[in-house]
Amino acid sequence: PLGMMDGGRICGAVSPYAGLVGLGLGGTMAYQGVIHNPIFYLVLLGGGYETFMRFYDPVGHAPPGYYGITGGQRAAITGGYFGLVGALFVAMAWNKQNMLTPEQLQRQTLETTHFRRFD
Description:
Structural class: mainly alpha
Radius of gyration: 22 Å
Number of helices: 6
Order of helices and strands: HHHHHH
Number of strands: 0
Strand content: under 5%
Largest sheet: none
C-alpha cells in the first residue's frame, strides 16, 4: 500500500503505519531491481511524501475523522482490502495457467475459422 494510490488510502485509514510497510516493500523491490518501471519510482516518492505527512502533519493532511473510525469499520475495511488482494492473486494465477502463446492463438483461430468455396 503506497501513498495516494487506492491501497495507500485504504490501509492508511486502517493504520497510519501501513504506509511504512508499503514503503519498506516498495523500497526493497526497487533496491533489488525487481521493478524497472520508472512510474513505480514516482509512486514510491509520492508514497514517501504521503507517509511523511501522515506522521508530521496529520491534522492538516487528512480530512477530519479520517482516522476516527470504529473497530467494526476498521475490521470491515481490512477484510475487504485483503479479500480484494486475494481475489486478484487468484485471478492472476488463473490467467497465467490459461495463457496461450501467439502461435497457439493463431492456430486456434485458423482451426475455428471455416471458409467455404462455392464453385
